[in-house]
Design brief:
- With 184 residues, the protein is of the alpha/beta class.
- It contains eight helices and six strands, in the order H-E-H-E-H-E-H-H-E-H-H-E-H-E.
- Helix 1 crosses helix 8.
- The radius of gyration is 15 Å and the shape is globular.
- 42% of the residues are buried.
Amino acid sequence: EESQPISGTAAMAALADVWPEDAIAVVETPSSTVALRNRLRLSRPGSYYFSASGGLGFGISAAVGVQLAQPDRPVVCVLGEGSAQYGITALWTAAAYKVPVTFLVLRNEEYMILKWFAALEQANDVPGLDLPGVDVAAVAEGYRVPSLEVQTRDELTEALSTAIAVEDGPRLVQVPVASGMWLD
């Protein structure tokens, strides 16, 4: 179902529409991980990297490293804007060494997974969980990583198709997504 902003489920469906058979996913988007796993068909060993510990901050640098280790396979790093802040300087490495990794940033303007966990623990009014104005695409441009923000599922599908096909360096695609845990 179309909404504005799109859901994390719609974003993962757009990614699945253009997913190369031999691609590798590096995933650090806790509120959309289940939606991603329900959409992508990953059957080749070494195609999925995810932090099982629940920690945040490995995604960008892990994706750069995986792409360097697997130069013949496309790597797509799917993460939220909050997760990106922990390792944002890895964008410099990706740009400086022309690492052809694709970054998909789901921008929900919050640490949704931490809000969910706070509610689970009955912690109310936890500060620092809203992220208004965090624009990873603008930061990436500062690191000389070509970036764009799209709004709709169709725009996202087109942007990802183009970004994943690039072989001369990194690309970043950012899409605003609605708040929520996306499980389907």
